[in-house]
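note to self: the first set is below, dont mix up w the second
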Amino acid sequence: MKRNHLTIPNFLSFYRIMVFPLILWFIFQENESMFATFLIISLVTDVLDGWIARSFNLQSEFGARIDSVGDQGTYFLAFLGIYVFKWDVIAPHMEPFLLFVVLCVVLILLALLKFGKLPSFHLYSWKIGGYIQGFFFFTLFAFEFYPFFFYFMIIWANLAALEHIVIQLIIPRMRSNVKGLYWVLKERD
């Protein structure tokens, strides 16, 4: 049975992909206010698309893949925005932040090398980390930098990225909507 790809969750994911050039343009124009506004909208649509897909049984392999493309684009924009607009406050704390960037690159490269495609696991740790990171980006651009919150966010993010990498090393084929390492190991029993 062919599933309809024209769903609200997929539309929200497409929105994140389509608005990518606009947000990038705001970065190059050094328009922090518009960058922050549209980045926050993208973060909210990311939360909404997953919630709507789960609540109304609209989850699909196609939806998981475009959601992941939207997520990766949003992460890239957030990192670039932090570099352009907030590097002065992040620079003294850059080691754990750069570790997260490296881990993200490693998990994408590992997926491409091992499976020939981008990952779309949607791990629970990654989802929770996404909410924490979204709130961090919101507070960073709407208010100010809070070091304690930064370290909480970045430690969680690094642990979730490591879980992602370990799962990729364990599983024989790429699949979407993996809950976490616990469930992958449980399946192996």
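second set (the one i keep forgetting abt)
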Amino acid sequence: MNSLEISADFLQLLTQYQLAIRGYIRGAVGNAFDADDVFQKTNIILCQKASQWNQDIPFLKWAFTVARYEVMGHFRDQSRDKLIFNDTVIELMLDDSEALAPQMEKRAKLLKHCLQEVSDENRSILEARYGSAQTIEQISQQVGRSIDGVKSLLKRVRKKIRICITMKMENPVL
């Protein structure tokens, strides 16, 4: 197996743009599990092609091009499924995803900030639900609340976070 020589500058850019690349792929693929597979394959290809990257081309544009081919390959490989998108639809989804990726990266950063405004107890409930994918029933047993109580709490906390992110997107100086 050949050893890859990857420059520190390349690794810094690859690390810097992980959220944008993942968001681009997720927006195009839709399914989180499939998107994660495509994202991993894309990162491998990016590393394998590190020496081919022309620094005159913005890194993110180049990475999106690599990701685009991986997404199209994913849909081609999934052609056995009943729901298949034609190439035109895939291209449109990729274009939309590329346009939204920078905003998604910013929203992800704001999410981290807004989560700090949530109480420790509520943040742990969010982590149980979305971080470790526990069911609402499991969480309700752990925290001693009714299922409806946990549902209501999650709804209120998600709304608070959504409002926080929206406000910071509209007025970043707050």
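remember for set 2: The CA atoms of residues 6 and 50 lie 6 Å apart.
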